[in-house]
Amino acid sequence: xxxxxxxxxxxxxxxxxxxxxxxxxxxxxxxxxxxxxxxxxxxxxxxxxxxxxxxxxxxxxxxxxxxxxxxxxxxxxxxxxxxxxxxxxxxxxxxxxxxxxxxxxxxxxxxxxxxxxxxxxxxxxxxxxxxxxxxxxxxxx
Length: 141
Description:
This protein has one domain (3-138): 4-Layer Sandwich (Glutamine Phosphoribosylpyrophosphate, subunit 1, domain 1), CATH 3.60.20.10. The chain is built from 3 helices and 9 strands. The chain has helices at 15-18, 77-84, 129-133, and strands at 3-7, 24-30, 33-39, 51-53, 56-64, 94-102, 105-109, 122-123, 134-138. The strands form 2 sheets. Strands 4-5-6-7-8 form a 5-stranded antiparallel β-sheet, with no helix packed on it. The relative contact order is 0.19.
């Protein structure tokens, strides 16, 4: 599985997370945050992240089972968010972790797993100052 890191610090430590996605690492600075995606490329077209559409930035780790896409299953997330708002995760039959930033609002899902059939839940930006400075979301089993 891929690894994702979102931090206000450009020097955030990506060392351990990078091991989750050894095939490609991309980092961008946007909206005062550093978005890092570590890709584990298994099938299909190598698609670097984050996905960006206007004021929305999205990092995704997982697999989609119920939506059609052209290059990457992660490309469906921003359109679903625009259509359904915070309820968009209910329209996914996936295993995933996602961090999505829309203007000044943070959204993050818990990891969803098919066997557990847990409902994805949203939380705003993590609470403590230390968490806000460096916030990591990854799929763990």
